[in-house]
């Protein structure tokens, strides 16, 4: 890990820890997140961890640009990684079916697998939540096995159903609400990712792990899942 600090705005700094995406980064990113929150205290406005960086937004009326940089270096001096087992493991049931996951056969064919083989491959790894973004509760997860990694769609859909589970390159994610999107959709889950009225926060946090579990249509329907087929095709 090599700390580099870049100016993002007059009151924001980008703290860059790594150059490449790797699951082992998260132990350091989460440790840095905790250290910076402790160091900045009420001077901190927001702190957003991601794959290789943290975006730090601070109150520039309380701290100058140079003071903020010095405080970051001091907070991260002698940093040690956290226990990556501390994050929560989420079990996410998914109904994998072409009607709600139109790219399921295409991704399988591209990987040289049967549809069942692709489903098994997607379910056999605990994915790390690297970052939250795009939409409330949307967790960018990885890393997907290179064998099933698939580029984004050339033409994004205007509508992707809430709960849609997809792959883009070596990332996987769940759409928390109806929105545009260009990922390869494999199936659908009924697990709510963001319910502000109930929890006030997203289900996932950076550093958490997610395990997908294949279920039948009957199980999906019994849990209140929406079986409406994906209408729009790329």
Automatic annotation (TrEMBL):
Entry's Pfam families? CT_C_D (PF02682)
- Which Gene3D superfamilies does this chain map to? 3.30.1360.40, Cyclophilin-like (2.40.100.10)
Q: Which UniProt keywords apply?
A: ATP-binding, Hydrolase, Nucleotide-binding
Limits of the Carboxyltransferase domain: 3-206
- Cite the PANTHER family for this sequence: 5-OXOPROLINASE SUBUNIT B
Protein name per its UniProtKB record = Carboxyltransferase domain-containing protein
Query: What is the native source organism of this protein?
Result: Vreelandella olivaria
């Amino acid at each position: 890990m090599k700390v580099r600090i870049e100016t993002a705005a007059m009151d924001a700094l980008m703290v860059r820890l790594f150059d490449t995406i790797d699951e082992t980064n998260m132990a350091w990113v989460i440790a840095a997140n905790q250290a910076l929150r402790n160091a900045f205290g009420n001077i901190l406005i927001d702190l957003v961890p991601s794959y290789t960086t943290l975006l730090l937004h601070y109150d520039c009326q309380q701290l100058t640009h140079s003071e903020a940089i010095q405080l970051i270096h001091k907070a991260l001096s002698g940093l040690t990684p956290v226990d990556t087992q501390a994050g929560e493991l989420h079990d996410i049931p998914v109904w994998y079916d072409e009607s709600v996951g139109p790219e399921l056969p295409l991704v399988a064919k591209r990987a040289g697998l049967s549809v069942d083989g692709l489903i098994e491959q997607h379910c056999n790894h605990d994915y790390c939540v690297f970052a939250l973004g795009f939409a409330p509760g949307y967790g960018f997860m990885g890393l997907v096995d290179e064998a099933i990694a698939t580029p984004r769609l050339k033409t994004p859909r205007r509508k992707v159903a809430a709960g849609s589970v997809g792959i883009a390159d070596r990332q996987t994610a769940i759409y928390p609400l109806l929105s545009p999107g260009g990922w390869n959709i494999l199936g659908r889950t009924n697990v709510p990712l963001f319910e502000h009225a109930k929890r006030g926060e997203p289900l996932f946090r950076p550093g958490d792990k997610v395990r997908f579990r294949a279920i039948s249509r009957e199980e999906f329907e019994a849990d209140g899942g929406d079986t409406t087929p994906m209408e729009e095709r790329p």
